[in-house]
């Protein structure tokens, strides 16, 4: 039976799958061959498109058509997710070895649009570069008193959880799965890595809730994962310990995991944040993180599951007076000694930078330093530090820079990420999915870069624009989004120094907000200069964690790239950047420019009023007002702070308070 | 029937009413004369003391004794609260016109102890200087998601409210009332001035909860007041407006108030925070605060009630870039034009300083500027900005300075406070009542200063020590407490500048925490100097709100007292104080001294281990560790901040980070 296409609730934005996305397919004659659940998904999609646009679809026919499109299982050797596409003699043919490949092939045809049905195409094989393309949802089942339902969520409540349990009506979860499949995502973790009391029980007596979600996502090729508490044997099992080397603990995890697979046969595995920011972990028992990860890996191994073990381990009770500790060093210092000790089905999940998703960080040196460990790289699609989905900040260029960075000799980050690419989701039950309608572009871009890390992000952006908005406003949208990350960087913390944000919620400026905190996030600004000395020669030694050539490049303020200067060095305000400007004048200039660029983007958006759906246009226009207010606040606080400290006037005499 | 003395739950500290407080009375022969509920309270007290200490008590006997103590109603002209005390021929006699006076007389005898029963005493009359001596509890009925149950409470949950309603067992409320009566407090407002949805209903369908509390407090001479929402006619009455000049609104308040008095015949009246920090008020209808206050005054007038209208009105959405607005000016600017327009039973409740209970502020100029208005002065016993009952900070000297300040020619603040003295309570359901056992001294001192504003605070302190701890540790306790406010001032924000605290919760240092906020609390530190210019000549003009001689004294940095210098002036770090020190060296010196003084106080406390009850000693010793940690954090943040800004090294080469 063809699977019906999910019906969006009234008022919910279709994002990059409006009906028009399948106009070209829907007007044609399609033959589908093969069997299996995902073939039914493909059939349902084509049938719905034909219903709208007048084409027709035939299943497993023995005749030769004529057909405009043939979608079929059959080819070997493409893996579960690959497909081939060819066009010959007026017929476009997609062939796959497995159902997921066929679905991805269909979405590929959708992206091509009319171009899929013109001319000839020689056979080409498409395969994802990374086998795991995963979203981590930081969703709580119960609303958390401080963090709300979705931790670092800026798009309403959870798509999965409502009133303390899985949503009864999972139609929107199905629609979400469909959107994710259309950009290539194939795994989801459905709850927050900070596992609170209610959420801990998802592993055991509430696994049925997870199974329901898994059931809704499965037809879109998405496997479901779960964040678990390392202390589960204590919390849920009544054991006196959670020691990973304890026999009873191992038995408890084995049995708990067996029951999980009983409920969800294709369950993906566990995600664990251990010994981090208050979460329990193996340190309590004098065990290593490899011991901890391998405990869960052993429980998952018989069923083909994977444990994602986060490398975000650092001392969050640091003393700002102690300059010998450097949080940036922590992940490397903790994990590199463990290389080779993780089980094959344990994936070490590493944030792309050494700190925490700032607008600008160097690539984490851990990524190139564990050749005998499967690493996954974690990005943050939710805009915690990049405007919280009230600011336009399309992160494609940043992620592309990260993924293309040659962290090892001969290997980019994208290539080192053998465990996959993971991102913290930015979606919720907001009508636009992502709060800011243009933040959809981040979700889409993440999926497409996970499929192909070396894709041109600008081309991905244009693809998203074309699917979501059609050709009318494309040039304007491209102008608004393409440079928005660099614009955001300009009006916020300068030159890689990071963390000049309001404590706790992280929205808006507070230059000294974390300067005397226990969080290890300092800038050391004084009347003479600013920045963190992380050199080997005179600083924390963090620069020495890199291989060649980066250790040398970052070691000296002369060779360090401007945009990371204050991350690696404490320099005087008079220090000259490669650009020829002094640091202080760079700060002033970028902050004035950043606000001007927001004003310009707002004006471009205003000009699109007749080319964009009114609801979308209105929401974005409203948010631009907030972005502009906030950008001015950033500009004025940062400039005032550094003017008060340095005493250096702006070379152009602009207003600083 | 004599009223039984309340029984403290196991483990609850007896504070300043341990059994020994009535040892002298309890061992003697006492005659009680008169009738009425408070006479029964007196009788119960004496009977309980006699039960413990072997004396006896007789009621309304016609014989002549002999009696050691005669407590009797009878004298005229002492008012409801006054009493006379005399001793002649071996008999001590307390005479009062009303029950409260008799109860206060008994507590006075208790404070005198054995001295009440030796030698002769000529008749002396005791009367409170202020008719209203009130505590405002900022207690919520329902636990507030951010503020907890007691807003700015540091002593556990509410004494009055539990699980969303009045406590069923009011024995501890009775014990609280007894403690308050023993230091002279005669009124309580039982809920937060920020009136949330649940608490708004106390006025109407939940008045029974308030009546129960009033019933428990009445035998101790304490009248109960209620904080109400100005929007009550909308919220509770279903009216379309809360306009104070609207007839239906006036009728609604009249009827609501009538019902309140039906439930609580001696109800004290309403407390209102209007048009302040988000609370509703008359501004919404284009009416004045006199219109607002008089609306409620009119409803209360037939029943003898009073409305306390808070003068804490300012713009809390200020722009830090706008130097023309000065929050310190706000109360004066709002209210002085209304002088003479408030009803006789409306009391304008004015915080003692122009800002918000900082460790050092000038006296509010509003206090001397409204001769035709009944003003009450508001203090904050709860230590929001003075260590949150984790630090020892006895506020007696500060309050005494405030109350004795000659704000008007010929009138001190204590004399101008014709509407009474009010304080935000620091008590909760903590076993020690106030979290920090030594914070009890603040509650006691407040009551005694409200009775007699010109009392020597050191003598009040010794009185509290003697009652609470007995003579053994008295010298040590005096040493620990007497200078503790100045010690706290030394290690926190310097020279009156205020508000260098962590935003939101207000515990611990954050020099720039409010510097770029909308709250109007700035210090304007730059690399050259620090402080707020509030002069008439070059600043906000706030200094001009004072009468003579203060306007002139504060106008010039040369005549402004050192301790308020940065409140009134922006000066360079090299500015020389009256003390001869530069501002920057003063900052360094006081911060090192402050920590040393905490260390010394901790050591004194440690030496009292054999002289103090173990539970009290342990709690205080633990808290001293936190105070010391926090004081060092304050010292190091403040010193580092100003060293980084000024570049001036410490003259003594001490460690600054």
Structure report:
Chains A, B: Residues 123-408 form the Glycosyl hydrolase family 67 catalytic domain. Chains A, B: Residues 434-654 form the Glycosyl hydrolase family 67 C-terminal domain. Chains A, B: This is Alpha-glucuronidase. 2 copies of one chain form a homodimer. Chain A is an alpha/beta fold and 657 residues long. Chain A has 3 domains: 19-126, Chitobiase/beta-hexosaminidase domain 2-like (Chitobiase, domain 2, 2-Layer Sandwich), CATH 3.30.379.10; 133-317 and 334-456, TIM Barrel (Alpha-Beta Barrel); 489-646, Alpha-d-glucuronidase, C-terminal Domain (Alpha-Beta Complex). Chain A contains 20 helices and 20 strands. Chain A has helices at 23-26, 37-53, 99-112, 171-183, 197-200, 207-217, 232-235, 247-263, 289-300, 330-335, 396-404, 413-416, 440-451, 457-469, 474-482, 484-491, 550-555, 565-568, 583-606, 614-646; strands spanning 29-33, 56-59, 69-73, 83-88, 91-96, 121-126, 133-136, 139-144, 148-150, 161-162, 165-166, 187-189, 223-227, 269-272, 306-310, 346-351, 374-380, 420-424, 529-530, 571-572. The A-B interface holds A 145, 320-321, 503, 509-513, 516, 525-528, 633, 636-637, 640-641, 643-647, 657 and B 145, 320-321, 503, 509-513, 516, 525-528, 633, 636-637, 640-641, 643-647, 657.
């Amino acid at each position: 039976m063809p699977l019906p296409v999910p019906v969006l609730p009234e008022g919910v934005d279709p994002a990059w799958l409006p009906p028009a996305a399948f106009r070209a397919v829907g007007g044609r004659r399609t033959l589908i061959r093969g069997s299996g659940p995902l073939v039914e998904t493909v059939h349902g999609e084509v049938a719905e498109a034909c219903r709208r646009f007048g084409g027709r679809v035939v299943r497993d026919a023995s005749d030769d058509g004529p057909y405009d499109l043939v979608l079929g299982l059959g080819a070997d050797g493409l893996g579960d997710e690959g497909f081939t596409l060819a066009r010959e003699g007026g017929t476009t043919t997609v062939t796959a070895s497995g159902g997921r490949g066929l679905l991805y092939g269909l979405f590929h045809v959708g992206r091509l649009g009319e171009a899929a049905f013109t001319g000839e195409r020689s056979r080409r094989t498409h395969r994802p570069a990374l086998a795991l393309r995963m979203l981590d949802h930081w969703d709580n089942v119960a609303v958390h008193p401080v963090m709300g339902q979705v931790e670092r969520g800026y798009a309403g409540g959870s798509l999965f959880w409502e009133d303390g349990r899985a949503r009864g009506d999972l139609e929107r979860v199905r629609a979400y799965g469909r959107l994710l499949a259309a950009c290539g995502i194939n795994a989801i973790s459905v709850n927050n890595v900070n596992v609170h009391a209610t959420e801990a029980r998802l592993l055991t007596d509430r696994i049925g809730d997870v199974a329901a979600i898994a059931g809704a996502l499965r037809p879109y090729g998405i496997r479901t994962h779960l964040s678990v508490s390392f202390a589960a044997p204590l919390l849920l099992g009544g054991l006196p310990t959670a020691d990973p080397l304890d026999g009873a603990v191992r038995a408890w995890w084995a049995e708990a995991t067996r029951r999980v697979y009983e409920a969800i046969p294709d369950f993906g595995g566990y995600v664990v944040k251990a010994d981090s920011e208050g979460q329990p972990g193996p340190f309590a028992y004098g065990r290593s993180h490899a011991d901890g990860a391998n405990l869960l890996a052993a429980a998952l191994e018989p069923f083909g599951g994977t444990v994602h073990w986060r490398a975000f381990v650092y001392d969050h009770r640091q003393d700002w007076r102690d300059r010998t500790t450097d949080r940036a060093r922590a992940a490397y210092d903790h994990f590199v000694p463990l290389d080779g000790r993780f089980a094959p089905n344990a994936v070490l999940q590493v944030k792309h930078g050494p700190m925490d998703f700032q607008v600008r960080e160097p690539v984490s040196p851990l990524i190139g330093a564990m050749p005998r460990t499967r690493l996954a790289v974690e990005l943050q699609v939710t805009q915690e530090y990049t405007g919280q989905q009230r600011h336009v900040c399309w992160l494609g260029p940043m992620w592309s820079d990260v993924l293309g960075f040659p962290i090892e000799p001969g290997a980019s980050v994208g290539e080192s990420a053998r465990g996959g690419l993971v991102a913290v989701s930015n979606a919720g039950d907001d009508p636009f999915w992502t709060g800011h309608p243009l933040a959809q572009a981040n979700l889409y871009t993440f999926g497409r870069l996970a499929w192909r890390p070396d894709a041109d992000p600008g081309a991905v952006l244009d693809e998203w624009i074309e699917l979501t908005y059609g050709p009318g406003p494309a040039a304007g949208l491209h102008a608004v989004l393409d440079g928005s990350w660099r614009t955001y960087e300009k009006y916020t913390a300068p030159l890689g120094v990071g963390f000049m944000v309001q404590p706790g919620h992280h929205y808006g400026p507070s230059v000294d907000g974390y300067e005397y905190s226990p969080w290890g996030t300092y800038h050391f600004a004084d009347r003479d200069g600013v920045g963190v000395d992380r050199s080997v020669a005179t600083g924390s030694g963090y620069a020495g964690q890199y291989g060649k050539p980066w250790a040398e490049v970052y070691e000296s303020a002369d060779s360090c790239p401007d945009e990371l200067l204050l991350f690696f060095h404490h320099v005087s305000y008079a220090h000259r950047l490669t650009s020829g400007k002094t640091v202080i004048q760079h700060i002033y200039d970028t902050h004035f420019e950043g606000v001007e660029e927001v004003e310009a983007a707002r004006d471009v958006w205003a000009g699109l009023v007749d080319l964009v759906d009114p609801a979308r246009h209105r929401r974005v226009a409203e948010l631009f007002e907030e972005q502009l207010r906030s950008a001015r606040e950033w500009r004025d606080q940062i400039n005032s702070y550094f003017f008060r400290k340095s005493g250096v006037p702006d070379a152009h005499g602009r207003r600083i308070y």
